[in-house]
Amino acid sequence: MKKLSLFLSIFAVLLLTACGNNNSDSTKGDGDKLPEMVEVEVLLPEKIEPNEEVKIEALVTQGEEKVEDANEVTFEVWKQGQEKDHEMIEGKNDGSGIYSFTKTFEEEGFYFVVAHTTARDMHVMPRVEMTVGNPDPATKEESGHDHGSEHSNHEGSHDGETHSNHESHEHEHDATLMMTLNNKEAVKVNEEVTLSTELKKDNAALKDATVRFEVWHVDAENHEYIDANEVTEGVYEAKTTFKEKGMHHIQIHVEKDELHEHQLEELEVE
Questions:
Q1: What domains appear along the chain, each with residue ranges and CATH number?
Q2: What is the pLDDT of residues 18-59, one digit of tens each?
């Protein structure tokens, strides 16, 4: 009887221990839920006329919450057919998740707006098309997918999703893509420099990609876009000359098939 009692006691202890472990694992699982997506909806006026100031807004939300602490909301604006020198306008935080800018469009035509938004460790770049005045519909391009229209979301993909009856696309952030800006040392003003980046996907060189460097001084509005060439497998380079001293932003844009990604770096010019 003593042996039987001892056996039953040990069995009961083991059973309680197992139950306790199961409860612990279950509790841990509930605490590991992924955060909800940050979403951005670009809001346009019903009608935009040339030479009239208009306000364009972006509503930033995460689930039911309106995001009032976005790290960056910058609007990229360009007219259909404009390949370079897109205007970059810093959004004003109006509160309640609304970020905005005002602008007067001098020419009628078809335009595009990308809301570059960084908030809560996610990056979203929805693009909308808008019409200024009454341009000839025959001049409208079938695909408004010009340079500067990259869209990425660190948490998921919603290709083809539409907001407020305007075209909007987002592409999934590929966590396996690694970008490295090889220019780590300060460069000299008015001296030609070679910008270089190495791209790896799944630990292998990313070949045959379309790569551009977007370059601008921290205090400047105009951005320069420089096409890079692949010099060796996965290594892309472009030459440029910096005209101003001070800190510059270098944004690396990468496109290949469904992959649309970018990464922001900084470079000091002496």
A1: 38-167 (2.60.40.1930), 177-269 (2.60.40.10)
A2: 444 444 443 334 455 667 888 999 999 999 999 999 999 999
pLDDT digits (tens, 9 = 90+) for 97-138: 999 999 999 999 999 999 999 888 888 888 899 999 999 888
Output the six-digit token pair for 49: 């006329």
Q: Which two three-digit tokens encode residue 188?
A: 């000299």
pTM: 0.47
E strand or H helix that includes residue 17: helix 2-31
Mean pLDDT of 1-10: 47
DSSP 8-state class, residue 147: T
Distance of CA 196 to the CA centre of its chain: 21
- DSSP of 128-140: EEEEES---GGGS
Q: Are 55 and 42 in contact (CB under 8 A)?
A: no
